[in-house]
Amino acid sequence: MTSKKRSWTDWLKLIIILLLILLIVRMFTFNPLIVEGPSMQPTLMNDDRIIVDKISLLFKEPERFDIVVFHTTSRKNYIKRIIGLPGETIEYKDDILYVNNKQVDEPFITSVKDQLPLNARYTTNFTLLEDIPGGYNKVPDGHVFVLGDNRPNSTDSRRLGYIPTNQITGIARFTYWPLNEFGLIK
């Protein structure tokens, strides 16, 4: 009887240890997330299931066009694409992105822009100094400038202002649901 009892307690200890390991891995490396809302369409749709990579941020800063998850309040996470990095000027004019006065292509929204009527704008014109909260002409140190891919319907840096890099919790890397979207996020 004692060997059965010992075997049962050994299994219980093993299960508890495995659950703790899984919890630690999930907390510090990868996290599943459900996309809420249309702000990242066409790249990510409402209710898409994605994997957010947390560990990369320990080794390097996020880069332009990374899709990041960040906190703006203790209860609300946002998912947006980094457009501007610290020290850069960002301007949108006639539906073209300019970073440090140089045109930058955004291939992830080309298909949507191509469907617009002639002379229609997907992204409204703006400059950092005149139109973005904070009164800066460059993205401040320790911050990024983010936009949703669905520019007409996104709460992003145009409204929220600059996002502190220490509020970024991860980088969206992989879609696992729906199955027809299974794969790396571009």
UniProtKB/TrEMBL annotation:
Keywords: Cell membrane, Hydrolase, Membrane, Protease, Transmembrane, Transmembrane helix. Its EC number is 3.4.21.89. The chain crosses the membrane at residues 12-35. GO terms for molecular function: serine-type endopeptidase activity; signal peptidase activity. Its main location: membrane. NCBIfam families: sigpep_I_bact. The keyword Transmembrane helix applies. Pfam families: Peptidase_S26. The keyword Membrane applies. PANTHER family: CHLOROPLAST PROCESSING PEPTIDASE (PTHR43390:SF1), SIGNAL PEPTIDASE I (PTHR43390). Belongs to the peptidase S26 family. It is found in: Cell membrane; Membrane. It catalyses: Cleavage of hydrophobic, N-terminal signal or leader sequences from secreted and periplasmic proteins. GO terms for biological process: signal peptide processing. It is an enzyme of class 3 (hydrolase). The active site is at residues 39, 80. This is Signal peptidase I. The lineage of its organism: Bacteria, Bacillati, Bacillota, Bacilli, Bacillales. Residues 8-177 form the Peptidase S26 domain. It is a single-pass type II membrane protein. Signal peptide: none annotated. It comes from the Bacteria.
